[in-house]
Amino acid sequence: MFGCLVAGRLVQTAAQQVAEDKFVFDLPDYESINHVVVFMLGTIPFPEGMGGSVYFSYPDSNGMPVWQLLGFVTNGKPSAIFKISGLKSEGSQHPFGAMNIVRTPSVAQIGISVELLDSMAQQTPVGNAAVSSVDSFTQAQMTPSPSEMFIPANVVLKWYENFQRRLAQNPLFWKT
Q: What does the alpha-carbon distance between residue 110 and residue 62 come to, in Å, rounded to a whole number?
């Protein structure tokens, strides 16, 4: 249902389900992570009126988990980028409460709690999580400036097919 991505690491798509409506991803060596991307896989949408609150947890000096709300993912906004570097303040109220989730000292976690959209709208993410949003581009937004030229993908594909055909006929054609 969810995926988690950290730059330079493999994509995680096997969240550990710790309750009927709660999922976690482990983030080993979290001290070196600046941003994390949380996304829906597109295989199972949220039920109508539901979404996912995204939390970050790291161990405090006593090894106890500190949970902070980063933001949300929904069917209408199926992915988000969160800045997690520098999130080392007091935790807040969270739905992972007294859950006994096994963890090691240098492992942080991303938690996703499936909740009602109405209750999610009343929550405030931690301010310095700096949620980044990347909007997708539409054709109307790709207005070329006079110094730029856009080439349709089918033109590039046709050139590549011709190149492959000529290469198959004469492997040294490009030298002439």
A: 19
